[in-house]
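Input for the complex:
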Amino acid sequence: MDFEFTRDQLMFKKEIIRFAKKEIVPRIQAFELKKQFDFESFRKLGEFGILGLHFPEAYGGGGADVITTVLAGEALGEAGVDGGLTLAYGAHTFLCADTIFRHGTEAQRRKYIPKLASGEWIGCMGLTEPNAGSDVASMRTTAEKRGDTYVLNGGKIFITNGPIADVAVVYAKTDPEKKHAGISAFIVEKGTKGFSSGPNILKMGVCTSQTSELFFSDCVIPAQNLLGTENEGFNMSLQTVEWDRSALLAPFIGASTYMLNRCVEYAKKREQFGRAIAQFQSIKHKIANIRIFGEAARGLVYRIAWCKDQGRPLNHLEAAVAKLFVGDWSMAPSNDAVVLFGGYGYCHEYDMERIFRDSRLAPIGGGTSDIQKMIISKLI
Amino acid sequence: MNYDFSPQEFDFCIKLHEAMSPYAEEKIEALRSAADLRYHLDQILSLLADTPYLKLGIMPVEGLNGLVTLMSALEAIAAISPSVALSIGHGTHIFGRIIDAWGDVAQKQKWLNPLLSGKLLGAVALCEESLNTDSDALITSGVRNGNWVTVNGHKPHVVNAPIADWIAVAGSLDHRPVLFIIEKENPGVSIRARKRTLGYEGTAMADIRLEGCIVPMDQVIAMGRSDGLSGIRLFENQLLTGLSLGLMKSAFEAAKSHAKTHKSGGKPIIAYQEIGFKLSEMLTLYQTAQLFALRAASSAQTRPREAESLALCAKVFCTEACETVSGEALRILGTAGYEVGKGAERAYRCAKYGQIAGTSTEIARVRIGDQALGLRV
Ligand SMILES: Cc1cc2nc3c(=O)[nH]c(=O)nc-3n(C[C@H](O)[C@H](O)[C@H](O)COP(=O)(O)OP(=O)(O)OC[C@H]3O[C@@H](n4cnc5c(N)ncnc54)[C@H](O)[C@@H]3O)c2cc1C
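Predicted:
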């Protein structure tokens, strides 16, 4: 066993932190307060190579391994990048672009991956529906084959990047009689007749990410927009779980390091009763709790990444454990950070309250904590 | 990076488990006399001496990964007999690591060989009356007289005190921290009555009093400035972390098997979300603790400067997780688990020790905080 990163990986992480602190972090507050997406920062992520890090260079990617890719997500969190932007990046790169890359034809890869890797186009992924959340197999959106086209009807909800996406990977029933075995995945481009998105849904956290409904009303797409094989969509969606349990969780771990550093800074400066609050044991305990969470979670997330690098099939038990731990156990340290900052922790001016709100997504998005418990209890 | 155990490690842990299986905790718990207890441990020590177990963390073993393998091995043994794992942890591993880290060549020759061949059992007496060497100075001290030192002091709650051959006693000499390695039979050493404890009932624990105890200088080990004491604490914290994994394993396995076989309302109770989800949370804590413990052990070998603080984080997490997991296991087991001597009940009682012993949970958090704040290096 060996838990060390390579020197190159660590240097790359440092570079990302430096880049993000300089180019992205100073812009967050303004966009957060307006609950707007920061296109400029997203474009910079593309320029820096983060959006396409793991894709082969031939497709405009960086050719990085999974560990390095996950480390990039951690670095963004550690630099203080908000959960809204890291979620937008996650949905774009892993839920949308990677699905196209993994299951698409060569023509589909050539058409979409370079644009998505550079950030020229923004991608989203539509799986959840108003009446099909945890139980995705009960989705009602249909894709009916008509000649060399498919006709999509139905709707999706809570879709990250929905209002701003240029391209969407959409799951729909091609065999409505069946549950999991009747789902297929399609590429739908913005501007396609019959495809529209709703306004941004206002949320408690990850506010700079734009979330919306997607509507399909007799939306006709060419049959070649089918991804992979018909009725294989559910299995394809499961394959994104590997990224979901590694790259999408990594920013939460990075955020815990960011909180730790901010709390340390603040505790040293803030004086009460004639001394820095850092002197109080209860403050040290809070700082310790934040560190312990980050260190505990790190192993789980990088284990998934390492296994993926080895080309092993996802271990669903380990994946659910990682998601459940980060989801449920990240709450307490972010709460500790808010309390450590006192009244300032409650105000927008200091970003602890934002991280607290952002962390609430961890036990919901990409499969709730209950669903992880369901998976674990079945597998044991 | 590599998250896999080597085939040798796998093989070793499986063989260890098989070898230890006949030595379940019930047997050692029932032994009240020091002689019986020592006889029982001697049998186990001679069996373990045929495996690499006793050497782990002290000397390299081909194909095994030192402290990392030791963590898994501790888990395997503690799941069968926590008391054996604790006694040998103190008596061989901590004692041996002390000699290995700070002993000179002659001292290593004298104690390490018999220790690693299972013929010697040690004890380590660190705490003082206040029980807290992290904040309070050592009172036990020696006065030099030529080639001899006269030691006086009182050491409470020493694991293995009634059964050890040699005791490593932390104290000061010429205002510097040292370890006096004292033979049990040495005049001036008095071992008090074995204590009854909440958990680890098969471990012999007692107070030691040293009154005018004369020790030759070649049985004194200097430990540098003060890092020696925190080094010993680190060894102890690592041991308690490994033990908590074994306790979690036995509590979790007991609860899981009960949940799958015990029926209520015509179906196994695991079919109820309340139970299935509880098991899921327990497994999540257990797996997280396992990985954390292994990573902290690995970093102790690769990045010793960070070892202490990561080991403290792992110790706090694993020992607290242990209490939660064993507590939840008892809820799942219902009255079946409430009976004294059952796996989860025992794990629950032993779990408390992990938080009290070594660097206590509260002090550990302060130290972790201090390190983050740069108040202590
Ligand atoms: C900010 C944000 C971004 C998102 N981005 C995307 C995206 O890009 N693409 C996309 O497709 N989706 C996205 N989602 C949707 C997300 O994946 C779902 O919200 C999530 O899967 C839960 O579904 P639901 O909201 O319908 O809750 P429900 O499934 O209705 O669950 C409600 C409650 O019931 C519990 N529950 C449900 N079933 C069970 C059960 N069997 N046993 C026990 N408890 C159960 C749940 O745990 C939860 O507490 C996003 C959501 C959010 C909040």
